[in-house]
């Protein structure tokens, strides 16, 4: 990728001290850096040594599982010997790698014969009769092996080639259910609660947003089946698998207007699921100051939105820089930092921030103080 060789392996199996060996060369390979796609239990290790390029030609990222094929698990054990185990009864299974994230389609297999020592098999690859690689072993559970399929690897490769890093997955957060229109003969997704999440880049606008009771009819050109699935995937999973940060999601929606329903086409900008830019509990609760935008974050927000970074959840209980009555703190949604002071004065609310901004001369240099997840302080002179 990007003219550099990479090793694909499982995220959970990596340690701080990594030694990469191959029997062909019998030496340690030096690596440049590691990029993690934790949501998929996948990591890319960038190598300094170019000699492995010829070993990576058989990865068939467009290959999909076929039941009438024979498959085997192959890899290299700690004694530098290659192993091959036959697999049986393969099927796709939706698995959740991280809490509060969508489920993803993993391949589930059984081993034909018993293998006493399964520890250390993670990262082994699965090949078909033509020796095409189409997945990597992630983990074993209840005697089943769960394989990261190439459709997931391809999604990560596309993002890495575009950004040279992992930005995290994106999806659309809502409470929804599948509905059927007898008149138009289609299945759609009724949004019971959108949580007023703003998916667009301009966080101060209420344009092109999903609303409660909207019905999503199409995602791009894709329609829903009677289970509310797209390509046999849940809606949230389909978005996460087919869109990366920076993409635009085109939706065809049905919205009630007066006593009739109107079809509209809207576009949503993809955002990282971890990003607090999703949080939009009140469209009016923003303060913009030069290049920064600030948002009030309440205890209710903390409880409602599982995607809020963990350090912000902890910080809200410990920091004194909040209004003791309303129990909220101010987040800079431009950079995901917590605002603590403006010109050395504590910021306890958006109103107090507005007052501090308006009380200073427009020509004066003002200092904003913020902290990150490690309680490291940052100062911005504006």
What does this structure look like?
The chain is mainly β. The protein folds into three domains: 1-166, Beta Barrel (Thrombin, subunit H); 175-269, Pdz3 Domain; 276-381, Pdz3 Domain. The chain is built from five helices and 26 strands. It has helices spanning 150-163, 235-242, 299-304, 310-318, 350-358, and strands spanning 6-9, 20-21, 28-29, 31-37, 42-47, 71-76, 82-95, 104-111, 125-127, 133-141, 144-149, 175-181, 186-193, 215-219, 222-223, 229-230, 233-234, 248-257, 260-269, 286-289, 292-298, 328-332, 337-342, 345-346, 367-371, 377-381. Strands 20, 21, 22, 23, 24, 25 and 26 form a seven-stranded antiparallel beta sheet that branches. A six-stranded antiparallel barrel has the order 6-7-8-11-10-9. Strands 12, 13, 14, 15, 18 and 19 form a six-stranded antiparallel beta sheet that branches. Strand 20 and strand 21 form a beta hairpin. The longest helix is centred in the middle third of the chain and has 14 residues, at 150-163. The radius of gyration is 25 Å and the shape is globular. The model is unreliable at 52-58 (pLDDT under 50).
């Amino acid at each position: 990728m990007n003219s550099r060789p990479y090793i694909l392996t499982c995220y959970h199996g990596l340690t701080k001290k990594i030694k990469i060996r191959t029997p062909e060369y019998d030496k340690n390979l030096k690596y440049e850096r590691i990029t993690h796609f934790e949501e998929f239990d996948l990591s890319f290790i960038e190598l300094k040594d170019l000699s492995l390029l010829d070993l990576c030609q058989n990865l068939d990222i467009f290959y999909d599982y076929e039941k009438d094929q024979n498959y085997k698990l192959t890899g290299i054990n700690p004694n530098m010997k290659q192993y091959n185990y036959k697999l049986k009864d393969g099927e796709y299974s939706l698995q959740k790698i991280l809490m509060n994230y969508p489920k993803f389609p993993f391949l589930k297999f059984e081993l034909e014969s018993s293998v006493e020592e399964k520890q250390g098999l993670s990262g082994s690859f699965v090949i078909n009769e033509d020796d095409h690689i189409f997945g990597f072993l992630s983990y074993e559970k209840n005697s089943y092996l769960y394989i990261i399929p190439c459709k997931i690897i391809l999604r990560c490769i596309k993002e890495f080639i575009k950004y040279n890093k992992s930005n995290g997955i994106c999806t659309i957060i809502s409470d929804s259910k599948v509905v059927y229109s007898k008149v138009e003969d289609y299945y759609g997704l009724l949004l019971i609660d959108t949580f007023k999440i703003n998916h667009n880049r301009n966080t101060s606008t209420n344009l092109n947003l999903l609303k409660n009771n909207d019905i999503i009819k199409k995602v791009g050109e894709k329609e829903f089946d009677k289970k509310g699935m797209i390509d046999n995937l849940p809606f949230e999973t389909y978005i996460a698998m087919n869109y990366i940060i920076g993409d635009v999601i085109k939706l065809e929606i049905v919205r009630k207007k007066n006593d009739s329903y109107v079809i509209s086409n809207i576009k949503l900008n993809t955002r990282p699921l971890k990003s607090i830019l999703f949080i939009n509990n009140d469209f009016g609760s923003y303060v913009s100051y030069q290049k920064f935008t600030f948002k009030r974050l309440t205890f209710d927000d903390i409880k409602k939105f599982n995607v809020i970074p963990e350090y912000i959840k902890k910080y809200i209980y410990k920091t004194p820089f909040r209004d003791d009555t309303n129990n909220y703190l101010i987040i800079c949604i431009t950079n995901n930092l917590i605002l603590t002071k403006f010109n050395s004065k504590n910021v306890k609310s958006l109103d107090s921030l507005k007052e501090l901004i308006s009380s200073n001369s427009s020509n004066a240099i003002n200092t904003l103080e913020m902290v990150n997840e490690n309680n490291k302080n940052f100062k911005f002179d504006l």
